[in-house]
Amino acid sequence: MVDLHDNNPPHQVVIIGGGFGGLYAAKALSKANVNVTLIDKRNFHLFQPLLYQVATGALSPADISSPLRSVLSKSKNTSVLLGEVNDIDPTAQKVMVGSEAVPYDTLIVATGAKHSYFGKDNWEEFAPGLKTVEDAIEMRRRIFMAFEAAEKETDPVKRQALLTFVIVGGGPTGVELAGAIAELATKTLKEDFRKIDTSETRVLLLEGLDRVLPPFAPELSQTAEASLKALGVDVQTKTLVTHIENDIVTIKQGDDVKEIAAKTVLWAAGVKASAMGKILTEKTGVESDRAGRVIVEPDLSIKGHPNIFVVGDLANFAHQNDKPLPGVAPVAMQEGEYVAKLIQKRLKGETLPQFKYVDRGSLAMIGQHAAVVDLGFIKLRGFFAWFFWLFIHIYFLIEFDNKLVVMIQWLWSYFTRNRGARLITGKEVVKPVPVESNEHYQPAKTRQPLNV
Amino acid sequence: MVDLHDNNPPHQVVIIGGGFGGLYAAKALSKANVNVTLIDKRNFHLFQPLLYQVATGALSPADISSPLRSVLSKSKNTSVLLGEVNDIDPTAQKVMVGSEAVPYDTLIVATGAKHSYFGKDNWEEFAPGLKTVEDAIEMRRRIFMAFEAAEKETDPVKRQALLTFVIVGGGPTGVELAGAIAELATKTLKEDFRKIDTSETRVLLLEGLDRVLPPFAPELSQTAEASLKALGVDVQTKTLVTHIENDIVTIKQGDDVKEIAAKTVLWAAGVKASAMGKILTEKTGVESDRAGRVIVEPDLSIKGHPNIFVVGDLANFAHQNDKPLPGVAPVAMQEGEYVAKLIQKRLKGETLPQFKYVDRGSLAMIGQHAAVVDLGFIKLRGFFAWFFWLFIHIYFLIEFDNKLVVMIQWLWSYFTRNRGARLITGKEVVKPVPVESNEHYQPAKTRQPLNV
């Protein structure tokens, strides 16, 4: 039993990662008699579920990000350290940030996941994924550059490839991306071009299983598919991607093999654990699963190291039913909060029952007007689902100024279908479009000389 | 005299550049019986006067940008072409975009200016300027990384250099940057760090002439200087920068030479004409001034080429008094609109009196609460000037959805002093900070082992 008088040197908690798991742990410890150091390689918390809105030009990165220091500025027991952890020493109880050693009494590892190409890492160049702000800006650049290039292209076959968007993976991110791109093409950009008809855009959503949104109830998958089709999305289930290279996606449906000519391919399929998983395995001997996720104990600690916890997408927690908990924000939040509570209990010499995830449901947005919500006891679709989706997402955006701005942006885009953030930025802004087949540029009508 | 019946092939106007000059020309031609092609290397119009708000984390790039296609979507006679013009052929009347030739009857060149280091181009690496969205994001990265590095630095001398910000140039951009950084340090970030006191930040504003805001009335320069000093900015006038290298700015004040140790140096001093100025000089024989600006005729055309116009920052128009018009947005807007009107008059066989700039005043913001406004007949300071500044800037933001969001962001930041967009993004996100002098990282208090 530890004496909790003020003159005691406080217990040191180190948290690696400022995503949902790490940040919710830190916030839940803000009034505890501990010192907290939160280490992240970025200076902001990112609301990842809305990244697809950045990728499709509806929101700006800052709208869905909150500076970690400002989220935690009132937690006076908490320091934020900007840096990347490259090693852990469980014996000396410290983590290494570059050449700096940061000592801990309790360690919470919450470094999440990155996208995985199932061993085909060369696909990344042709089919970028969506995990960081930079990913979203790159996706946004590709989407809007494709329309620009199509406007200049005179060869109808090449033009069709430029106006074909393939999204690999029919989970929430894939469904939301497909819906947003279809709306972009048929509504937002409709009046903007002079030579192409953007409503001829083809959006394909490829899913390996037999329905989109596999974690949802089957009837909601059907609703989602119907909503996507109403937006013009070509939904292909039971479809495997076997090859991706520049402009060509090869798919397999049963025994059929097909090639799709598409300039823009977006990856919303597999994820794998971040690099900290491997470090933990090497340094502590803990087991990990095929995706690199760390197998955790019922209290989210790792075997033989009761003062090291793993939460969020990096953890494989399979103590409720056989399947590990999914890599979604609510799981990470609840795990972070559980560990924070457990640390405080332990400091009093007490303990907690094992972690239990309370599933409050799943939800996904399809375009700007439809959504599906599966709360277990009730299933919502259409406008009410859309409104509920909006409410939940805004509610969980951490800082109020973001909430307000995002809400207004959404209400605005709901009524106008506008997407103001469709900036093409980045290193190669004007990537030269192949012009071999292009005639000299000809304005729509012939010219008339000016009398000066 | 030209016959204007509908079956006539329309007159082809090509505009290079979608800044204030080019965009206002295009908009003023939207109902005219001409075809317009607007060529820009970016797909958006940028509201440059607010770029400093992006650089200091108050606004996002998309808040001050409007997609050119959407601004011009209702101008059915106008096409937008994304690309960079690399040559002009005034004899064949065409411009080259890569290998594409775009023919014109009338050409409007509005490619603006970029920052100039007065021949010391190697300073750019140490003292970035502020002309593009990428510039602003790089400036934002440097500003916020400096605070992060200071938080980690244990050597007090190095820490002071990290907390020293030098802004070169006391024009509106320099004044606005200095005020914003001072407020950031003393207000926004005050509670965010645990080891540094951000209010010890030193912000220096260096100006070569004898007062800041030289184009304004002297009493407003005094007000601006007093407001800056109240915010803690160290204003140094009659100060020349003679050398910039990593961490050191060398200045000359009279005969005194001093060195300032500063990690972050921001350039808000000279500008020079964009590359199109040189192409025009070579291809048409038109004269240019020392800054590369093209000398224009009283009707903004260039000598010997009445169908080529230059407007905005690229033009040197000195027909009203001896001094050329300044490179500010109102000049560019009025020039663009004048040329649009002149083209329409010429098509009717008429003409216009020479261009005359109507100076409606100058304004600058100092921090979030003070501004100076010089309307000629009236001079405003303090809250009214701030409100007026806000109103004018919001009024001229091209698209309404941006206006609404920016207004709310501002009202919010006015009341909370928050700056939500302080993301550190870009290629080298976690630039390793030199740690030679650093001790091993030590949490604020000593540690207490956990009883598990």
TrEMBL record, chains A, B:
Its EC number is 1.6.5.9. The keyword Oxidoreductase applies. InterPro entries: FAD/NAD-bd_sf (IPR036188), FAD/NAD-binding_dom (IPR023753), NDH-2 (IPR045024), NDH2-like_C (IPR054585). It catalyses: a quinone + NADH + H(+) = a quinol + NAD(+). The chain crosses the membrane at residues 380-398. Keywords: FAD, Flavoprotein, Membrane, NAD, Oxidoreductase, Transit peptide, Transmembrane, Transmembrane helix. Residues 360-415 form the External alternative NADH-ubiquinone oxidoreductase-like C-terminal domain. Residues 12-336 form the FAD/NAD(P)-binding domain. GO terms for molecular function: NADH dehydrogenase (quinone) (non-electrogenic) activity. Belongs to the NADH dehydrogenase family. This is NADH:ubiquinone reductase (non-electrogenic). It comes from Anabaena sphaerica FACHB-251.
